[in-house]
Structures are given as C-alpha cells and as structure tokens.
Amino acid sequence: MQSLAGKVAVITGAGSGIGKALAQLLAGRGCHLALADIHHDNLEATAQALRSHGTNISTHVLNVADRAAVYAFADEVLTVHGNAQLIINNAGVALSQTVAELAYDDFEWLMDINFWGVVHGTKAFLPHLLKNNDGHIVNISSLFGLIGVPTQSAYNASKFAVRGFTEALRQELACSEVAVSCVHPGGIKTNIARAGRFYQGPDGGHDANRAAANFDKLARTSAEQAAQVIVDGILRKQPRILIGADARLLDLIQRLLPNAYPWLLNKILGRH
What we know:
Rossmann fold; alpha/beta; 7-stranded parallel sheet
C-alpha cells in the first residue's frame, strides 16, 4: 500500500485516543473512513471534525464484542463504501486487578473486547480482502503483549493473545497481497485508564481516577504521535510496530534477559 489516498480505512474505537488520531491523520491523507465506536457522541464528534477533508466518512455505533454486530458492520461498510482496504482493529479497554481478586465477569468483559473484538473484526473483513487479494489488517496489541506486568494479568492475556493471533495470521497470508501488522504501543496519553476498570486494595474498591493519574505519569507518547508511527508502519508494511521508547526498550530487555526482566520491571515500579 504505497499510497493511502482513495483507500477505505475501517477503524474501531475511533471516538477517542489512538483511533481518533488515526482517523484524523488518514483523512488528511485522502482516505475514506468507516469509523466505529460504542460511544455515539464521541464517534459523531470525530466524524464531524473530519468532514471538511472532502472524503467519504460513515459512522457506525458498534460493540466489537458482539460477533453478529461486527459482521453486520462489515456488510454495511461494503455497501456504503464499496470496498475496504485498511482494517484497523483498535477498540480496547483496560483492567487492573490481582489474579487472586480478579472476578470472572471482569476478565470476560475485557477478553470479549480486547481479544474477541480483534478476531471478529479480522474475520468479518478477511474474505473481502482475500477476494481482492489486496489490503492491510492492523491489530492493536500493546507493550503488555510483550511483557507480563503485576495486576495486569487479564490485560496481558488479551494482548498476548492478539499478538499470537496476528503473527499466525501473517504467516498464513504470506503468499498473498494482504499485509498484516501487530502494533505494540507503550504508554500513550489516552483515556483508556479512565474508561477502564481498576481496583485498589483488599476491599476491591474501584479507583479509576487514581489509576488514571498513575498511568498519566508514565505515558510519554501522544495519541497523535502514536498514529503517525502506525501510519508510517502501514506504508512500510512493517509486521511489528513498536511505539515509544518504553516499548522499544522493554522489548529489547525481555528478549535479551527473559528471566531477569520481571526483576527490572519491579524495580522501575518501586516494588522492590
């Protein structure tokens, strides 16, 4: 995909964060957009800000955890736009809790969105991409799809799963013209922490504001910077796209010191 102008890009989680920044950047490059998000107001605000670019923009309220809804969404996109070349499965949520205290309902909620949402989006559009033998699937994993982190077992599980799923898919499509990328952002300044489920202390009290404040201290990369790295990676057909110095450094450390990186990570987190 040497040029994005005139291509149809599908973005889930487009109402905020990286998804919104990707929509802004791709619209500026002449992409037609099919934007999906579970929050109607955020979605419409994103779309309204982009209509001056003169490209075709459709909006779709969507829960990516709902398989039937995602397949209906894919049909609607193809009806409205006639094509879809760039599929960005970006929608995701956050959850922080120890394994001992983690409730199954919370675990399933996160996996349904972070992992199954990626699977649904991939499989719903894959037949179209294969029929045309053209396109690019971009699945958003995380730095936490490369390293394990205390209290992030559910999030780790979902993002490791996205990574494995995407890397296997890439190998399956190696003889086609459909490219596949897995994205691993480090700390990105978005609202994912505030919109997630975070629990502190033995009483299981919900404290999203405190968790978000701690996350903000660690986030070093803006959503706009992350979107630029992703688009550059798409144009270069990079199989793995690392975002941020933290992601690049910790990826290197876990590959060089697979048994020692948890100790280093705990030092950074002040747990030792």
